Request: fold
Amino acid sequence: MADYTHRKKADGTWDSICMTCYRTAAKSDTELELGEDESMHKCDGSPWSRPIDLVIDSLRKWSD
Reply:
């Protein structure tokens, strides 16, 4: 089962990020609505399924 991190964006919407593949698993207007889309996420299990520069960029944004 994947683990997800939620982040609130500047426009007030929410993203759910899969901590296994680093892909956006869900987007929603409220944090509570993310769960249903998370359950639909098809993770390939590879932490490097995205180019490394995108992973690093995402991690930097989370630390802001």
Q: What stands out?
A: DSSP finds two helices and three strands in the chain. The mean pLDDT is 81. Residues 4-63 form one domain. The radius of gyration is 12 Å.
